[in-house]
Fold this sequence. Notes:
Layout: H1 2-25, H2 28-54, H3 69-98, H4 106-135, H5 140-146, H6 151-179, H7 183-212, H8 218-229, E1 236-246, E2 249-258, H9 264-281, E3 285-294, H10 305-318
Parallel strand pairs: 2-3
Antiparallel strand pairs: 1-2
Helix pairs in contact: 1-2, 1-4, 2-3, 2-6, 2-7, 3-7, 4-6, 6-7, 8-9, 8-10
Amino acid sequence: MRAVVAALAANLGIAIAKFAAFLVTGSASMLAEAVHSLADTGNETLLLIGRGRSRRARTAEHPFGFGRERYFYGFVVAVMLFTVGSVFSLYDGIHKIIAPGRLDSPIVAYVVLGLAAVLEGLSLRTGITEANAERGGRGFREFVHRTKAPELPVVLLEDTAALLGLVFAFLGVLLSQLTGHEEWDGVGSVGVGLLLAGAAFIVGYETKSLLIGESATEEMSARIVAALEDGPEGFRVIHLRTSHIGPESLLVAAKISVPGTQLASELTAGINTCEGRIRAAVPIAETIYLEPDIYRPADLDSNDPSVEAVQRARDQDEAPPPSPPGTGTGTGTG
Length: 334
């Protein structure tokens, strides 16, 4: 969470500086950027609130806990980015294009924009450092799409949008100063608004998917199926369903085929052993439900994504190694 705290501190200081610069210069771009930073400050606060509320103990009304509150507050961030940041910036920019005002003391705007760029860059560096520790060999685009924790992708997107927004604001002030047409300042504000709308769409799209309920990754599902089938109990997976009830909490429900000759005590012991193997393979699998059934080949769900993932992995393991370069398969005569 260092990235969220760093972004909160940076955006709060930047928002104060930008509002002060707007009062001095009257720049629409500076006002748009000030509102942008204020919205980002509120967004980081919401992310921290969501993380805190998600740790509440489960209740009778919410037996799986409150882990998805983090997704809800992540979605609220997207709404804030669009309504507070984007809509206001577009409105103010269009207003300044239609009725341009006077731009005073542009040097103040340049100084504040430069200071904001430094602080946003430091915040983004903190976010990238944390992301690098989590994303493994995945690219940033895949990391944002695949991660189950909403806070870090939101910070990365916000900081990136903030740096691009500073470029728009700088160009708006600069072109207004060079050409003497203050309409360019309004154009810069419109650019910031469109940028925020794009960031809000991406954040909203990703957090909506998490809020509805995403399954475990293919690799994680493969480990679960392997844990169920690779033991001495002789169990086989008929179908498997998983759902994240929080970034660090996974619900696992599986229907498994069992030998019809097993005693109830043996079956219970086997299921308990399987649950232990699943938790060893996937530590975030906190809630596991296994439904036993008599093995019937016709009941096996060969199209289950989780079962398919394991089958693909097994096929790759059983595939013959590639032939060395220059080695032919045919025979020839000399």
